Amino acid sequence: MNLLRADALRVLGLGALLLLAGLAQAAGQAVSPAVVQIRDRWAQINYQLPKSERQAAFEALAGQAAQARQAQPRDAATLIWEGIVLSSWAGEKGGMGALSLVKQARADFEAALKLDPDALDGSAYTSLGALYYQVPGWPLGFGNDDTARQMLRKGLEINPDGIDANYFYGDFLRDQKDWAGAAAALQKALAAPARPGRALADSGRRQEAEAKLKQVNVHLAGR
Description:
It is built from 10 helices and no strands.
């Protein structure tokens, strides 16, 4: 049995998950070359590789992210990106092994928040929120919709116009069947400004937002 919602966790980043993509980089916030390499490789895997190749690719990238974290254990951006990669790997893997990966990702995001909650435009909050609504609840996992809402809203407070913060909040509201709220958030994600150096990630995220918005609009039209 697949214990994780693999389709949702794969897109985290923040990565999500799941998942997850990756998540936003503040315009004036420098990140290390190691983080840039991980970030860009994540986008290539998530949006360009066929599904059959993604699990192995994310596993290899997780090793690279672990090395970066070991070299910079108190760098919030490095911790966030390791968490995003682990979440994305979990989304492809599924099962109990995936659950252990998202627990590691949660620990990375929580450690990043202790170091710098504003790092990467609050991406640790958005990533945690995505995990909490996509991971099963007790007794299988730690999922919790109330915590997810709290974390996602904190991410939006820091980055109200960001593509990922709005995308994941919109997807959460879609999951909650708040169709009007989901439509508003997804539309805002589609209107988000482009991120320098993130053309591939932005394009992939917009495609995901458009697909989710179409689903939401079907429900709104059926009222």
